[in-house]
Amino acid sequence: MNAGRPRHGLHLLEPQQVRADFPILSRKINGRRLAYLDSGASTQRPRAVIDAVDHYETHLHANVHRGVHSLSQLATDAYEGARDRVRRFLNAASVREIVFVRGTTEAINLVAQSWGRSQLGPDDEILVSALEHHANLVPWQMLAAANGARLRVIPIDEYGQIRFEAFQALLNERTRLVAITHVSNALGTIVPLQKIIAAAHHVGVPVLVDGAQAVAHAQVDVRALDCDFYCFSGHKLYAPTGIGVLYAREALLEAMPPWQGGGDMIRTVTYERSTWNELPYKFEAGTPNISGAIGLAAAMDYLESLGIANVAAHEHELLAAATSALMRIPGVHIHGTAEDKAAILSFTLKGVHPHDLGTVLDHEGVAIRAGHHCAMPLMDLLGLPATARASFGCYNTMEDVEQLEAAVRKAVEVFH
Amino acid sequence: MQLTELYREVILDHNRQPRNFGRLDPHDAEARGHNPLCGDQLTLTLQRDGSRISDLRFEGNGCAISMASASMMTEAVKGQERPVVDALFKRVHALLTDPAAGSEGLGKLAALSGVREFPARVKCASLCWHTLNAALAQADAADAAATVSTE
Asked: Which of A359, A371, A379 sits opposite B6 (nearest CB)?
């Protein structure tokens, strides 16, 4: 996922205009201008997404796939239109491969409980990396506890990069799945998926990708990647919370048993037994998050109107500027220095706990994440209780970087 | 709300140089406290003489609020009888959560009053007190078991 650079001498993104598209960014925090640097936890929504959800709620809402009345048809068209929008965004072959879920966590749990329970048995191995978020670790631990499978961890080097040779050595005839992140939420490392997927497929092992930190920052083409499962959340892609996507190859989904039972996922039901609906509805029991799906489609329209490559290039400039700004401050240590890195900057300040840093920064209007980033095993590996993390989105500007630097200097002043 | 209300000089001082820091061996009770939100961790060891805390120490790592609160707590409860400790816990809890609570007679612990303006940090300040309660409950249980066995 190499980010395209802006064309020579030409700025394709107008940062102030993009910032103005996001109403929340004009509010004050503790009396200061808001520098929102926590997009890795959740992005803000542009006016276009807020309006699309509002339009749906105001004019189109009814339950989907049920009624013969006009509103139900309008809601169904909007919801299924959103599914096709997601298919185009990911360049998937068919809408049958796009399952709406609550988010990345639910997508991974669905695969673990449906595919995992039906395909894995005692001594089968699942490979995850040391970089994983709890969402791509705990579901596999639960599966392993239930069916006797084993979890093995691909190590990383001192820069936070996957040790590829170690990965190759871990791949063996017992390996049934590689479940790996696209971008590390804690360190920003971009994982070389092409190489990993090719090596896994070479020995017939499918690959699940946790794309939560990647989809809003690089063009993801599931057919070019050749991944088997790709999971992401809408709220990290400028869309509402409670909506996400599981992409999976059609043949895999066909073979998988349903996960949750209920309305919409069935074809026929008697008191004794049921038959399942076609894809992707077999995996969408109950009334879905219709407005969320519509918001997600609007967010994808918005992001593509900016140009994902332009956004990536802009974020990369901000990352470089923030990295050198923080490195100028004595006592700052940056964690995660992979060669290929997304706009996530994890750091600590000597003598100041990340939570105190978070409080001082918040007081200065700078919103960052402080903590273990839902990656406790990785923090243990790094020997850190927590880090401070600044993460960037399309709406960030150089002013945000300057505000971050000034606020960290303020923390130095308070604590020394 | 000013930052200096939260990070008062006495808190910064106890964070830089925590009192009663380390481990007490032998000890009558040991308890671990963990705040998963922040990753604050502390281990408390104490010795009792009847119902009096004769000595206690803590070790661990965490934010300035959790470290300073633990340090000041050890100073405040060392040598105190159980009813005094229980009453102090109630007063500190009120100080952290109730805007109407006063801080008269709390000594250095009064410096924690700024924490209630930062709701996300209340758990940092109260972690050490909950850990102390767990250690005392453990010592009580050990005493009760010892009493049974001698009967």
From this structure: A359
Question: For each of chain B's 151 residues, which pLDDT tens digit applies?
Answer: 688 889 999 999 999 999 999 999 999 999 999 987 777 899 999 999 999 999 999 999 999 999 999 999 999 999 999 999 999 999 999 999 998 998 888 999 999 999 998 888 999 999 999 999 999 999 999 988 887 765 5
A245 versus B120: the higher-pLDDT residue is A245
CB contact burial A298-309 (16+ within 10 A = b; e otherwise): bbbebbeebbbb
- The residue behind tokens 């399309």 is A394
**What kind of fold does domain A15-46+307-415 have according to CATH?**
Aspartate Aminotransferase, domain 1 (3.90.1150)
User: Rounded CA gap, A77 and A65, in Å?
Assistant: 9
A322: exposed, middle or buried (Cβ count in 10 Å: 0-12, 13-18, 19+):
buried
Give yes or no for B12 touching A (CB within 8 A). yes
Residues 6+ apart with CB under 8 A from A221: A90, A91
Asked if the peptide bond before residue B99 counts as cis, ω within 30 degrees of 0, the response is no
Q: Which residues contact A317 (CB under 8 A, 6 or more apart)?
A: none
Q: Note whether B119 contacts A: Cβ–Cβ < 8 A.
A: no
Query: Domain residue spans in chain A?
Result: 15-46+307-415, 50-304
pLDDT at A324 over 70: yes
* Residues in chain A closer than 8 A to B120 (CB atoms): 359
Provide the whole-model pTM. 0.93
Q: Tell me the pLDDT tens digit for each residue of A343-377.
A: 999 999 999 999 999 999 999 999 999 988 899 89
**Annotated catalytic, A394?**
no
Q: Residue length, chain A?
A: 416
B37 interfacial to chain A (CB closer than 8 Å): yes
CATH 3.40.640.10 for the A50-304 domain, yes or no: yes
How many residue pairs from chains A and B have C-beta atoms closer than 8 A? Answer: 46
The answer to whether A282 touches A258, Cβ cutoff 8 Å, is yes
Task: Give chain B's domains with CATH numbers.
Answer: 3-104+113-145 (3.90.1010.10)
Does this chain's domain A15-46+307-415 share its CATH topology with A50-304? no
Contacts of A350 in chain B (CB under 8 A): none
User: Could you tell me which chain B residue has the CA closest to the CA of A384?
Assistant: B39
- Whether B37 and A386 lie within 8 Å, measured CB to CB: no
Interchain CB contact of B100 with A (< 8 Å): no
How far apart (Å, rounded) are the C-alpha atoms in residues A176 and A197?
13
How large is the ipTM?
Answer: 0.89
> Between chains, do B3 and A363 touch, taking CB under 8 Å as contact?
yes
